[in-house]
Design brief:
alpha/beta; seven-stranded mixed β-sheet; 7 strands; Rossmann fold; 10 helices
């Protein structure tokens, strides 16, 4: 069986989610049943409800952290959110930049861009915009962003080296990133890696944490710090969609693991 292009998988699956609310997305292929959704028992999504700027209509439960928590966003900053979805992190970032700042959301999925634009129109913000663009080749001016954020998205990008080089390109000298993402220690079983639904669910696109951090270093970013990490435990019933009982037992005994991390890094002045 020939696998679809990873970007097409992401467009298709997240396009389906764009028309849903948080409750529905939790039961979707990109929701809690596959990993990157809003069921906290799975351990991915963090609770945004008490954050300033939070808008329930923009929260589809697709994150694995709160990147703004460590982003040190200041009034007047220009913030770029990679894989902005319905706008959840953009609206939280906007509460930190204030009216003098600017927030740009980047997403490859047209229905998500449409939903985000509908949300920002309802909110009446004139300093938040959403652009249909590929993270590997962003429609963003070089040296223009004070802060880049992203939430459970970069692991879905096929060429992570290109993605982080693009981040380096668009950051101003002295700017920084704060990204939440899913990484591995060890290797996932090949059956999980090959599963399109798990890919769109933020698991099989993940890479080893050491390789992830090395890619960030190779991009030119410095002062790299893992600010937060937590273990992700997928339910046995989810894994048994792809593995038999023996394979599941071997996976659990292998020492391999899935983690959510939030990473901070800077571009030198």
């Amino acid at each position: 069986m020939i696998m679809k292009d990873p970007k097409e998988i992401v467009k298709e699956k997240y396009g389906q989610i764009a028309g849903q609310n948080l409750l529905l997305s939790n039961s979707s292929c990109c929701g809690s049943s596959c990993g990157c959704g809003g069921d906290n028992s799975v351990g991915f999504n963090d609770d945004y409800r008490n954050l300033e700027g939070y808008n329930p209509e923009a929260d589809l439960g697709l994150g694995c952290g709160i990147p703004t928590e460590f982003a040190m966003i200041k009034k007047g900053d220009t913030v770029v959110d990679l894989g902005s979805g319905a706008g959840n992190d953009c609206f939280v970032a906007r509460s930190l930049t204030g009216v003098s700042g600017k927030v740009i959301g980047i997403d490859i999925t047209e229905p998500m861009i449409k939903k985000a634009r509908e949300n920002v129109e309802k909110l009446g913000y004139n300093n938040v915009e959403f652009r249909l663009s590929d993270i590997e080749k962003m429609d963003v001016v070089s040296n223009s962003a004070n802060v880049v954020i992203s939430n459970c998205v970069l692991n879905l990008v096929p060429d992570k080296e290109k993605a982080f080089k693009e981040i380096f390109r668009i950051l101003k000298p002295g700017g920084h990133l704060s990204v939440s993402d899913v990484v591995l220690r060890g290797k996932l079983h090949k059956k999980i890696q090959q599963a399109a639904e798990m890919y769109a669910g933020c698991v099989s696109g993940a890479i080893d944490i050491d390789l992830y951090l090395e890619i960030i270093r190779k991009s030119g970013l410095v002062n790299i710090k893992v600010k937060k990490d937590k273990v992700i435990t997928l339910p046995d019933e989810t894994l048994l969609n792809y593995l038999d009982q023996t394979e599941l037992k071997n996976f659990k005994e292998s020492g391999s693991g899935i983690f959510s991390i939030t990473v901070y890094a800077e571009k030198d002045v």
